[in-house]
Write a structure and sequence with these properties.
This protein is mainly α. Helix content is 57%, strand content 8%.
């Protein structure tokens, strides 16, 4: 029995090593599942989300959110079709899921004061998808929980396991399970998102103002060492240190005619 167990452990380690990948910034991460499978999971999570949370009936606000999202996805993933939904909910939140799905909550529009600040949020969430952070988290969970049947969980009725799976993909608190991305993934999404919004022609300087607004809206938060998320101050420091490069990209985008006007 011990010998058989050792064989399985060795095989598992070999499989993990064979599926180590790197993120867009060169950071190593585990990726056990094909993109098509992760995309299918994301689409399933999104469809269930739409059934549970009503979409906003405000056509102008919906068009505004879609305008910002389309401008970003057009330069980040040209040719890929993305579905965008504005959910009627006071939560100050947004998400993006594998499979080309973006959700924004109406509450966010009270904190993101203009198209540039909204672009900072959407760029950040899309970055999680482009960087395969959902795949990395699901893969890590799969690697540490033997016998996890993802297909059965996905196809079954609502359950804590399904909520956890959707949380790993990126829905997080939206399904009642708080599974925040790690600090490294959050920081990477901040920097990638800054680049994405600049490439689309949105002013990257507004990302700093956004997080200042977020700090005010949150009414304070725990110290960074008590949270998996970087503090608002740390985010602003990271964004500021990468701002000059983003401004250069922004200038080039504007010269190239990418001047979004989402009202």
């Amino acid at each position: 029995m011990k010998r058989i167990r050792k064989v399985f452990v060795a095989a598992g380690l070999a499989a993990l090593l064979a599926h180590c990948a790197t993120s867009p910034t060169g950071k190593p991460q585990l990726k056990l599942f094909p993109d098509s499978e992760i995309a299918r999971m994301g689409v399933t999570a999104y469809e269930e989300m739409k059934q549970e949370t009503p979409a906003s009936k405000d056509k102008k606000a919906t068009a505004y959110v879609k305008c910002v999202a389309d401008a970003i996805t057009a330069v980040v993933a040209p040719g890929m079709k993305w579905e965008v939904t504005l959910f009627d909910d006071k939560a100050v939140n947004a998400f993006a899921l594998p499979g080309g799905k973006i959700g924004v909550y109406t509450g966010l529009l009270k904190v993101a004061e203009n198209q540039h600040q909204l672009a900072a949020v959407i760029g950040h969430e899309v970055a999680h998808v482009i960087a395969d952070h959902g795949n990395a988290r699901v893969s890590a969970q799969f690697a540490t929980q033997s016998g996890l049947q993802l297909a059965q969980v996905l196809a079954g009725a609502a359950s804590p396991q399904k909520a956890q799976l959707f949380g790993l993909l990126g829905l997080g608190a939206q399904v009642g399970v708080l599974l925040p991305y790690g600090r490294g993934q959050e920081s990477e999404a901040d920097i990638l998102g800054l680049d994405y919004m600049a490439r689309a022609g949105f002013d990257p300087r507004q990302s700093v103002k956004l997080w200042q607004n977020m700090g005010k809206a949150s009414g304070g938060q725990p110290p960074e060492f008590l949270s998996t998320h970087p503090s608002h101050e740390r985010r602003i420091e990271d964004l500021t240190s990468n701002m000059q490069k983003a401004l250069d990209t922004y200038t080039q985008a504007r010269k190239a005619g990418r001047v979004p006007d989402c009202q």
